Amino acid sequence: MAISARNQLRGQIKDVKLGNVMAHVVMAVGDQEIESVITRRSAEEMNLKPGDTVTAIIKSTEVLIQK
Known about the structure:
The protein is mainly beta. Helix content is 9%, strand content 51%. The protein has a 4-stranded antiparallel beta sheet. The protein has a single domain (11-57), classed as CATH 2.40.50.100. The longest helix has 6 residues, at 40-45. It contains 1 helix and 4 strands, in the order E-E-E-H-E. The protein is globular. The termini are far apart.
């Protein structure tokens, strides 16, 4: 699948917490964590579980940098 987003980070799922409508997903990229909130339906359709290898695709007009 071709995609225009350039910021793609590969990592492993650490935790998935399912709510009534949304799911909170935590993934590890090296020694850093990325958290995302997606629909519960999407999390279930992808069958996300700890240990799965996934890609975080970041498409945003605001990516903050701190030094």
